[in-house]
Amino acid sequence: MENLDVFDELYTPLDPATASIDEVHKKGLWHQTFACWVVNPQKHSVLLQLRGPRNRIDPGSLDASASGHLAAGESPEDGFRELHEELGISIPKADRTYLGIFRNIALRGSYINHEFCHVFLAKSSVSPGSLTLQDGEVNGVFEASIEGAIDLFSGKIKEIKAPGIEWNGNEYALVEKPVSLQSMCNWRERGEVSKTYLKIMQAARGFLRGEEILAI
Fold first, then answer.
1. Domain count of the chain?
2. Residue range 167-186: average pLDDT?
């Protein structure tokens, strides 16, 4: 069973310094995760992942392009293996930027998620139809306008449309998906309380413009 590095709420390592992934979520121990938002410099768009049925937090919701736990001893950069596992792609270091850590909390019955999430942006011109998605973990990928996402997460509009691919039970089919704040993973915490989704989209716009990016 996979072990994770564990911390207190101030990001100080605990003693013992690791725990199993099941113990982490049973006791609500703070641990590290990785999230990458893939942005297209030509289209000024971002890829949103549709979380598959194996996810224990909000399956069927939209989230970062790729994400996952960091195992014990892994660095934030090691999380880029998730892009290969979930989307079938690799992005060179020169096309990545680190946004920093955000504290994410999600409570789903007896499943307690307290995470320090390391957030990255990465440039790529891949389209949803060119990806190889991980069965069970990823049910689809959609391409949303960054400007539209900023308007959505700032509350200016209620919904945007994002074309992409979604598993229909037999195959991945081309669809256009409505995206609202409520369709995002852990939307109340990340969308209303911390405004993390808005901050990431604003950083993505600056990243593509070549501006200095402030940590989220």
1. 1
2. 96
